[in-house]
What does this fold into?
Amino acid sequence: MTAEGDFATYLASGGFGTAGTDIFVNTLPATPDNCISVTGYAGMAPERTHDTSGNARPSVQVRVRNTSAGTARTKIGQIFDYLDGISNTTLTGHFYLSIAALQSPESMGTDENGRHEWVCNFSTIQRR
It folds into this structure.
């Protein structure tokens, strides 16, 4: 599973929604109106230490979309608190040395249907 898949599963286990119903991986479908999208994107080069395998450093973006501005803001804040600072933890079979927010949650404004979107990006260090 990918880092974004790990995040989606972890968010579902934390009560933020249901994978495939209102938590989506690498896509933001037109419906439902209120949902979470977890997308992987290029991270830093692998972190190499004394071994040869190194550690992967994928980055993940979590986007919350909601018809209510307040609910969207509250949910991305809760997700920020839930994910930021994770260390030495296994998520869906992958060991994460670190998960850290790259910035505070940020508003993306509204989409073409007037739904509010907020995002937060995370860097990870994942044992390979």
Remarks:
- The chain has one domain: 3-127.
- The chain has a mean pLDDT of 94.
- Strands lie at 23-25, 35-41, 55-56, 59-66, 89-91, 94-101, 106-110, 116-127.
